Amino acid sequence: MRVSKYYRHDDIRVEEMPVPKIGPGELLVQVKACGLCGSDAMTWYADEKAPTVLGHEPTGLVAEVGEGVKGFAIGDRVFVHHHVGCLVCHYCLRGDYAMCPTFHQTNVDPGGLAEYIRVPALNVERDVLLLPGEVSFEEGTLIEPVACGVRGMRRVRVEPGDTVLVLGAGVSGLIFAQLARLWGAGLVVVVDFVEYRLGVAKRLGADLTIEAGEETLNRLEAFNEGRGADLVIVTPGTIQAMEEGIRLVGKGGTVLLYAPSYPGERLPLDTNDIFWRELTLTTTYSCGHKDTRTALEFIRRGRVQVEPLITHRLGLDQVAEGLRLMAEAQESLKIVIVPFPQGYFT
């Protein structure tokens, strides 16, 4: 089978690998689509794993069923979550599935940017979901990103009528803007540098879009009765964006950091400002099996629109181009890799 193997951001090769052999409880899935994630474009993160097959947002068709598997048959359309928790450790019992040691040991083999993947038994048991007919393979690749947003919203308090500001109108930001409405936000504001992305945010229901800059806070306050936002969701992984998020949040508000910064960077905090404004600063990382099920329902029912987020469908030999488009962050949003562009079950 063909895979896209990452060596460096400027060295990504289509190579041949054996189709993985499956064991009891496992599935072999023919990958029909796999989304590129922002983490795939973080060179410091990807380089640590190299050489590797990236891709953790796959959907596809069940090609083989291992002994003892129940609930799945050859030909089923499925979404595959790349990580699952043990569900019995201290962290899982608290709902902190991403902190579970097992969570990081349940990867699909070799990675979603391949023609076939082996799905470990634990993943099959806990977080492989049947795709409804009304959800395409490409749309299904957004289940994991939407689920990450769902977990983020579960980690913050949103009161009915709150003002939610999303910093960054990439895929994650546009998902959060839609989720904020579902969580009861009265005013949804999206901030970005790119006019194209702000336009998409407006079409997806944002009440106010603001071009990022020195006047952002003034424009927000003018539209929001002189207050900052009750919740600011910072989607870029830069110190500058995090500092801006803290500047834009109002008294008693919360800042949710969604992406990591470069290793070793430090976020300077004015602790007096944090104290006197009674701010809450929190983070969110990945998602669990409950979140993926919620995400699938939101997508299936059209509560979160994902088709407008898909701007490019590329082949395995175009992964480098996809990562370049993501890094430029201009007129592109979700990049979906399609290993079999000519048909199914080739």
Q: Can you walk me through this structure?
A:
Strand 1 and strand 2 (11-16) form a beta hairpin. The protein is built from 12 helices and 16 strands. The strands form 3 sheets. Strands 3, 5, 6, 7, 8, 15 and 16 form a 7-stranded mixed sheet that branches. Strands 11-10-9-12-13-14 form a 6-stranded parallel sheet, sandwiched between helices. The protein is α/β, with parallel strands linked by helices. The chain has 2 domains: 2-143 and 287-337, Medium-chain alcohol dehydrogenases, catalytic domain (Quinone Oxidoreductase, Chain A, domain 1, Alpha-Beta Complex); 156-283, NAD(P)-binding Rossmann-like Domain (Rossmann fold, 3-Layer(aba) Sandwich). Helix 5 (143-154) crosses helix 6 and helix 5 (143-154) packs across helix 11. The mean pLDDT is 96. 29% of the residues lie in helices and 25% in strands. It has helices spanning 43-47, 90-93, 121-127, 137-140, 143-154, 171-182, 195-203, 216-223, 239-248, 271-276, 289-300, 319-328; strands spanning 2-8, 11-16, 27-35, 52-53, 58-65, 77-80, 116-119, 128-130, 163-167, 187-192, 208-211, 229-234, 249-257, 280-283, 310-314, 334-337. The chain is globular, with a radius of gyration of 20 Å.
